[in-house]
């Protein structure tokens, strides 16, 4: 493409993508499919790479993430980020309303009711209509600058189009992890043996504090705004300020409502308490704010919170029921979870019969015994949990519980690693739920993407003895599958479902498996389910070692030399290859035709940096740090995480740490600038 065409096309694509972003997020009315959207974005990324001089400062590609910053710089909030006074009682709300009225010396006060989003608070700073900084709450006085991560959130405008936008503006709001995406993410984490997040809030805060914003970009974070700060506008009310924020492009939820009497507020609370489970994000209450800004100003703040607002928190519904027995479940990574069987009881609209007891420590803390009356709550509104025992009602029939010491599925002695809460069954090759778990991970969308084989089918094939490990999948034939049947019985035994494989599904399964042979090596490596080796790590290992054979040969030292691979992952890789029976299995997979090597097109553009090890540090002008690292790899070089005697070059950008600089000088390692590096690869 000629430069003048590229410039025009980049501008056109940027505008188009921004438009679709807006339609999608602000108006909930997408005009094109996600796929078509991704295609536009991909074209723009490609063109910007080729013609970086035409990239717009507020390009939508920044949402894809890119640069890594090791630790976060801090920013002091211009106005401290305070918290809200909390209450669980209607009486306190009534008192709050009385206090405000008495202070204002009026009969009625207007309030805005909003949902209390259960996520992570964020402050967004705009200068001349462009997002300049995003800062976490931190300790309320100063927080972490997480701009690159926040820029990946598509519902946050990078540029405010309206002429009405103030030159300096601060918006505050809440970052949330949608419930459905949270369940999916935890499933993926379980697939590689990573600890799942306890709730969507933790997932959101963990995500915005990540170092690699390209990983953040893959998680569908949301942001709702609820507070406007600017000196350039004189709004009369909070409601008006939020309407304005909406108008200039912010995602202000339209669940907010105005009330001039306490009864209306109680009604709002009741309605949302009933409807909250239907939302795709978590709320833990309602925030009530005085609408009139003049009155807000007069009421002012205490040291900790505004006097013009209060939050009403929903009480988690709690019921009492009897503990009948405890099962010990083996998860797909071998982790044992004790599960309580309860006398069925109604809770928040569903019948609860089972609840997680988490681990041995928690059982001990609860001092829970068979036949006890226990209190059950819905934790994070998703999974019921036992929060206490009614010890006063304990009678003679109360029996102590002992924790198991052998795997209930395969009989192997359980282990418990130092510092870990869960017991484990280490028999990952032969333990049935672990085998099924590994196969489910292997076929999952981000791995081999064999979507014709859902969970139920994996279980069926395993139970029928047709698939005992990954390589068995590739031996399946039409005759093996046709007519295979399994009856699934629901947990309470009331429903049965018969699954039977007919011609069409058998064909789909076989083509799905066949097609998976085209998956590139990084996906295959991820699909193998090596503990702690997620998608990004698999890519890094694949690029670095280029084949499974080379990866297998790597020592601990060689593994930790790879950028962002630490001892934990390195040891897990070594363990994986050293496990009994693994070599035979890998050979069978290789014989079946899986890609165990990086393909031609994934290989390098040149070998000019062959055998050279680089440490990249600081901030660069032309490329992001990730792009620089990619260039090193594409030209045959390697990225290392820290400077050692083996480092060939240090590539130093602005703000490189003094400790690194000193170390490089001490070891006599040449230090390159970005310009020198570009010359090096262009020659
Ligand atoms: S207003 C000066 N509105 O709750 C008060 N906060 O306990 C500014 N939160 O840190 C906060 N939903 O993270 C406000 N609709 C809402 C909210 C909300 C959730 C969070 C926020 C804040 C915490 C206060």
Write the layout of secondary structure elements.
Blueprint: H1 3-25, H2 34-50, E1 74-76, E2 86-87, H3 90-104, E3 111-117, E4 120-127, E5 130-136, E6 142-144, H4 147-150, E7 168-176, H5 179-191, H6 200-208, H7 213-217, E8 222-229, H8 238-247, E9 257-259, H9 262-275, E10 283-290, H10 293-299, E11 309-313, E12 318-330, E13 336-347, E14 350-356, H11 360-366, E15 373-379, E16 383-389, E17 414-415, E18 424-425, H12 432-443, H13 455-463, H14 478-481, E19 485-489, E20 496-500, H15 503-516, H16 521-527, H17 535-545, H18 548-553, H19 556-560, H20 567-578, H21 582-592, E21 613-617, H22 625-634, E22 638-639, E23 649-652, H23 658-666, E24 671-672, H24 674-682
Helix pairs in contact: 1-2, 12-13, 16-17
The protein binds 2-(butylsulfanyl)adenosine.
């Amino acid at each position: 493409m000629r430069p003048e065409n590229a410039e025009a096309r980049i501008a056109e694509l940027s505008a188009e993508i921004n438009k679709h972003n807006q339609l999608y997020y602000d108006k909930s009315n997408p005009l094109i499919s996600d796929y078509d959207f991704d295609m536009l974005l991909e074209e723009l990324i490609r063109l910007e790479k080729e013609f970086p001089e035409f990239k717009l400062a507020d390009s939508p590609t920044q949402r894809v993430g890119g640069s890594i910053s090791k630790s976060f710089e801090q920013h002091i909030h211009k106005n401290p980020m305070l918290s809200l006074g909390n209450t669980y009682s209607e009486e306190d709300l009534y008192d709050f309303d009385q206090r405000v009225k008495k202070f204002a010396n009026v009969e009625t006060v207007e309030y805005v009711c909003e949902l209390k989003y259960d996520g992570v608070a964020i402050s967004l700073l705009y200068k001349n209509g462009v997002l300049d900084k995003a800062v976490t709450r931190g300790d309320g006085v100063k927080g972490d600058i997480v701009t690159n991560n926040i820029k990946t959130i598509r519902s946050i405008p990078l540029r405010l189009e309206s002429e009405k936008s103030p030159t300096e503006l601060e918006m505050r709001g809440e970052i949330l992890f949608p419930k459905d995406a949270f369940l999916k993410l935890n499933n993926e984490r379980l697939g590689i043996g990573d600890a799942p997040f306890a709730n969507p809030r933790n997932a959101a805060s963990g995500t915005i504090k990540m170092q690699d914003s390209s990983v953040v970009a893959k998680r569908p974070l949301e942001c709702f705004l609820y507070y406007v700060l600017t000196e350039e506008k004189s709004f009369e009310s909070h409601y008006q300020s939020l309407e304005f924020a909406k108008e200039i492009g912010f995602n202000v939820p339209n669940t907010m409502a105005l009330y001039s009497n306490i009864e209306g507020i109680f009604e709002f609370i009741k309605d949302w308490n009933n409807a909250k489970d239907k939302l795709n994000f978590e709320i833990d209450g309602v925030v009530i704010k005085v609408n009139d800004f003049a009155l807000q100003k007069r009421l002012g703040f205490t040291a900790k919170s505004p006097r013009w607002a209060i939050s009403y928190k929903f009480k988690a519904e709690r019921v009492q029921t009897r503990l009948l027995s405890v099962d010990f479940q083996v998860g797909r990574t071998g982790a044992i979870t004790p599960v309580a069987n309860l006398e069925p009881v109604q809770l928040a609209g569903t019948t609860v019969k089972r609840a997680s007891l988490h681990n041995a420590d928690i059982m001990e803390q609860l001092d829970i015994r068979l036949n006890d009356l226990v209190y059950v709550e819905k934790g994070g509104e998703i999974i019921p949990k036992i929060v206490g025992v009614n010890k006063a009602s304990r009678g003679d029939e109360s029996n102590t519980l002992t924790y198991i010491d052998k795997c209930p599925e395969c009989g192997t002695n359980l282990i418990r690693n130092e510092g870990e809460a869960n017991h484990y069954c280490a028999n990952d090759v032969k333990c049935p739920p672990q085998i099924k778990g590994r196969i489910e991970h292997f076929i999952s969308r981000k791995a081999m993407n064999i979507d014709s084989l859902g969970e139920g089918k994996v279980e069926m094939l395993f139970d029928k003895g047709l698939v005992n490990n990954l390589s068995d999948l590739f031996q399946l034939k039409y005759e093996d599958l046709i007519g295979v049947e399994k009856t699934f019985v629901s947990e309470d035994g009331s429903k049965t479902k018969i699954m039977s494989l007919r011609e069409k599904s058998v064909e789909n399964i076989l083509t799905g498996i066949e097609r998976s042979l085209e998956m590139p090596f990084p996906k295959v490596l991820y699909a193998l389910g090596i503990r702690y080796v997620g998608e990004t790590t698999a890519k890094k290992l694949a690029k670095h070692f280029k084949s499974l054979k080379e990866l297998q040969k790597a020592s601990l030292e060689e593994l930790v030399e790879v950028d962002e691979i630490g001892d934990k992952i390195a040891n897990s890789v070594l363990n994986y290859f050293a496990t009994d029976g693994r070599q035979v299995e890998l050979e069978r997979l290789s014989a079946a035709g899986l890609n165990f090597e990086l393909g031609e097109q994934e290989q390098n553009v040149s070998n000019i940096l062959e055998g050279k090890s680089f440490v990249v540090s600081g901030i660069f002008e032309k490329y992001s740090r990730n792009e620089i690292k990619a260039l090193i790899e594409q030209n045959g070089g390697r990225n290392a995480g820290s400077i050692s005697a083996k480092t060939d070059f240090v590539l130093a950008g602005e703000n490189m740490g003094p400790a690194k600089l000193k170390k490089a000088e001490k070891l006599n390692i040449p230090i390159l600038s970005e310009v020198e590096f570009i010359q090096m690869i262009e020659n």
